[in-house]
Design brief:
Beta-Lactamase, 22% strand, seven-stranded mixed beta sheet, Rossmann fold
Length: 615
Amino acid sequence: MNPAPEVNLEALLDFVKRNRGFDFTGYKRSSLERRIRKRMEEIGCTTYADYLDHLEVHQEEFAFLFNTILINVTAFFRDAATWDYLRSEVVPGLVAARPAGAPIRVWCAGCASGEEAYTIAMVLADVLGEAAYRDRVKIYATDVDEEALQSARLASYPARSVENVPREALDRYFERYDSRYVFRQDLRRTVIFGRNDLVQDAPISRIDLLVCRNTLMYFNAETQGQILRRFHFGLDDGGVLILGKSEMLITHADLFQPVDLKRRVFRKVLGGAMRDRLHFVTHPPGAAVGPRHVSLRDSAMDSVPVPQVVFGGESRLLSANQAARDLFALSAADVGRPLQDLELSYRPLELRSHLDRMRADGRAIATDRVRWTPKDATEARILDVRIVPLAVEGQFEGVSVTYTDVTQAEELRTELEGSKRELEQAYEELQSTVEELETTNEELQSTNEELETTNEELQSTNEELETMNEELQSTNEELETINDELRTRTLELNEVNAFLETILASMGLAVAVLDARQTVQIWNRHAEDLWGVRADEAIGQHFLGLDIGLPVEELRSAIRSALRGVDGRGEIALAATNRRGRPIQCVVRTLPLLVAGQEVTGVILLMEQGDSEES
């Protein structure tokens, strides 16, 4: 069984790309690895393999990972000098360069939670006026983080987020709801938010102003170049690019030229014109060409330092200048020979196929950087070959082939590229250091913001606890009041019970009080003495189920009558046995127990011992 392949950072990034479509391979490895490691430490994973397993099981972890990697640090009017320059110089220039009423398209790339996009909107509205702004401007705000875009679409910010907005702009462009500030709805419609991955997705085209601040610094040099080419394509002619203070374009001068390097404002470089093509100048039609003229023409051709050969319509060698004869070892005997008989036909270039293609297309052919090593030479030479059709009075007559030696130029170009790469590497190292400092600063700022948020949450929790404490104190006071009332009522009830017990005791009769279900509620001391059953044994029991010396079944009818409200004032004499086991004559009287003199809630039984029966 083959061991499982080792899971490294690249494997983890590939897994994220396949499962969520986020391509982080173009991000700087040092920053990317540091932030992923930070998230791994937070959940207790030590290796990439453990973290990949965690992602497979816990799909919600992707959101936490993306929030850790994608640093959404932004603010309104961040770097105020840049926005002042944009308002006073850049936007008026863009407006003046376009026809009156023409639409103005803006792209805010890496917009995070939207503060920068709405800042652009405020600046353009200041310059154009609100009516013209609504009619002409479209701002496309994009980011790769969908959660941040959802927040940006709400256009609602706490007071702390709008601290950098000038008071006049805050009153003019925001509406306040409770403790939050919401960007005006009529201007909000001009800002369109959407997800766009700068590495993978196509750029937005025909853009007049492109703002991408402190986003490129997270990508490596190759990915930065790719994104900048996309920006160059998306910008209209004369379009302006604004970057963050940690981003430069020293190595991309072919795409953008600085307008204000201090504020990182650049303008798109337009493509160069096509190169001029060299051509042969023929003598005027009808002019006489004598032997002297032919010699002059041959001398002129030989004086040209670029090797040149001419073939006629049948691909026969018509002429070769001195440079060509020296380079290819041609002689006078070779003039008139067909091309296929010459070594020139396949060295340094397969010439016959190119001639056939030129005849078919009727166009000149250029082949650059042809590497060829002449005989008796140790080093290769690099040639640029040009094949040009020759026509006389509109009719094809032959072909001119020139071989330009660019060996030295190629060496210089190689050296220049090497120097350029070294310069780029040195610049990248410098830029990496600056970016790491900037990233650290932004992380510290982000940590500070998180601490401020935590402090606010703790303060809010403290206020809630204080409120709860006040409520608990109020509840405690109410409970104390209720407790005092209960204590007072308990004392009153005890007094009533004692008074009632005194009455029941002073009656000299055995008393039992039953409820509507004939359950014993009161059983006085005389009843205990008479029947030998304690109160705690009798209370709560069904009266007809008590095991006493009284034949209680004979009282069932009288008890029911009393429950119906019949006053059973007649006495019932029953033969019974007292607690000592002596037979007695017991006189029982049943009375209905009335509440407020109306509702019957139970029965009162009055039991009195008569004379003892002698056995």
